[in-house]
Every structure is written in structure tokens, then in C-alpha cells.
Write a structure and sequence with these properties.
With 167 residues, the chain is an all-alpha fold. It contains three helices and no strands. The longest helix has 93 residues, at 39-131. The chain is rod-shaped and about 165 Å long. This is Poly(Hydroxyalcanoate) granule associated protein. Residues 1-19 have a biased composition (Basic and acidic residues).
Length: 167
């Protein structure tokens, strides 16, 4: 991350602060010389002195905020990266657990569905049997018997034709 202020800008501010301190000393010397008899001038010079101190305090605060702000920002970024890493690990493990639970539940649902289907088939078959309807299995057996009978009829019909034609 770039710093808020470049080194050359910082050096320029330091130079201005130094010049301001020199000017402040000159003003203080003048104030000292002139203040002997005149309290009104002293109040004006005190006001200028305090104004200058406030200005310098502001510059110092800005400089410190810049240095510490950068460190604080970098520290916050690092903490954010650590937190993101932890939360992504937790999210990944949660997704894994949810996947396992989903697989178990899906298996159980499938087993339950098969059990319900079997029970329903048994009940329907039992009910159909009690009513007197033929079951699917019985119908299939009847179809098979009918097909064999048809084949025998076809064979016998063929024999009868051969016998009649050979007489």
C-alpha cells in the first residue's frame, strides 16, 4: 500500500516546521523585547504564539496519523485475511458435513421409499386377491398357457392339413 505522504513531502513539511520554529523563536525574542511596557502587545504576541503552537500540533498530529494510520491499516488487512481464512475453513468443513448428512438422509429416504412401495404392493395384491381379481403374476401365467395352447393348435391344424392332403 502506498503511504499517504511521500518522503519528499514529509521532508518539505519537516523543513516548514523547522522554519516555523525559527520564526517562532524570533517572534518570541521580539515579544520579549517589546513586552516590558506594553501588556496589550504581550496578549497579541501570546495569541500568535498559541496560534503557532496549535498549527504545529496539527502538523504533528497529521504526520503521526499518517505513520500510525498506515500501520493500523496494514494491521487491519492482516487481521481481515486471517479471519477470512478461518471462516472459509469453517465454511468448507460445514459444506462437507452437510454433504455427508445429505447422503445419509438420501439413503434413508430411498430405503423408506422401497419399504413403502413393497408394503403397498403387498396390500394391493392382497386386496385384489380377496376380491377375486387375478394378480399380475397370475395373468402372466395365463398368457403363457394361452401361447402354448395356440402353438399346439397351430401344430395340430398343420397335421390335419397334411393328413387331408395325403389321403
Amino acid at each position: 500500500m502506498e503511504k499517504f505522504m511521500t518522503n519528499s513531502r514529509k521532508n518539505e513539511l519537516d523543513s516548514k516546521v523547522s522554519d516555523a520554529n525559527d520564526a517562532s523563536e524570533i517572534v518570541e525574542d521580539r515579544n520579549h523585547d517589546f513586552s516590558a511596557g506594553n501588556s496589550r502587545k504581550k496578549n497579541v504576541l501570546d495569541f500568535r504564539k498559541y496560534t503557532k503552537q496549535i498549527w504545529l500540533a496539527g502538523l504533528g498530529a497529521f504526520s503521526r496519523a499518517e505513520d500510525e494510520g498506515t500501520r493500523l491499516f496494514d494491521s487491519l488487512v492482516k487481521v481481515g485475511e486471517e479471519l477470512e481464512s478461518k471462516t472459509s475453513d469453517i465454511a468448507d468443513s460445514t459444506v462437507g458435513v452437510v454433504g455427508e448428512v445429505k447422503d445419509r438422509v438420501t439413503g434413508r429416504v430411498s430405503d423408506t421409499k422401497e419399504k413403502v412401495e413393497r408394503a403397498l404392493d403387498e396390500r394391493v395384491s392382497s386386496t385384489v386377491s380377496r376380491i377375486g381379481f387375478a394378480s399380475h403374476k397370475e395373468v402372466a401365467q395365463l398368457v403363457e398357457v394361452i401361447e402354448r395352447l395356440e402353438q399346439k393348435i397351430d401344430d395340430l391344424t398343420k397335421e390335419v392339413r397334411e393328413i387331408r392332403s395325403g389321403k
